[in-house]
Amino acid sequence: MSVVSVYAVFANAEEAERIGRQVVEERLAACINILPAVRSIYCWQGAIETATETAAILKTTDVQADTLIARIAGLHSYDVPCIVTWPVDKLLGSYAEWVESVG
């Protein structure tokens, strides 16, 4: 099966929803799960920063992953957004068929 999860972090829930809706409408992702606010601590341009951000998990196929990552990056407000894929080792067959049927 060729399903992957794409984990991305957004500036806020509104950005996550706007970008998530767009990539689902464009059929680059089957769905997006927008998680509650997360507290991030990170190094940026030599300083330790903290921020409240919104994380999300998108489901897509391995074939669509690079296009989805590029699209999210192009719509994102950050200069260097966190967008990574997580391989899916096992999943319900009917769920995999649904994700694969979207793209």
First-residue to last-residue Cα separation: 14 Å
SS element count, helices: 3
Mean pLDDT: 95
Strand order of the largest sheet: 2-3-1-4
User: Which of globular, elongated, flat, extended, rod-shaped describes the shape?
Assistant: elongated
Work out the radius of gyration.
14 Å
Largest sheet: 4 strands, antiparallel
Q: Tally of extended strands?
A: 4
Strand content: 35-45%
Descriptive report:
- The protein is an alpha+beta fold.
- The chain has 3 helices and 4 strands; from the N terminus they run E-H-E-E-H-E-H.
- It has helices at residues 13-25, 62-75, 93-102; strands at residues 3-10, 31-44, 47-61, 83-87.
- The protein has a 4-stranded antiparallel beta sheet.
- A hairpin with a 2-residue loop joins strand 2 and strand 3.
- The chain is elongated.
- The mean pLDDT is 95.
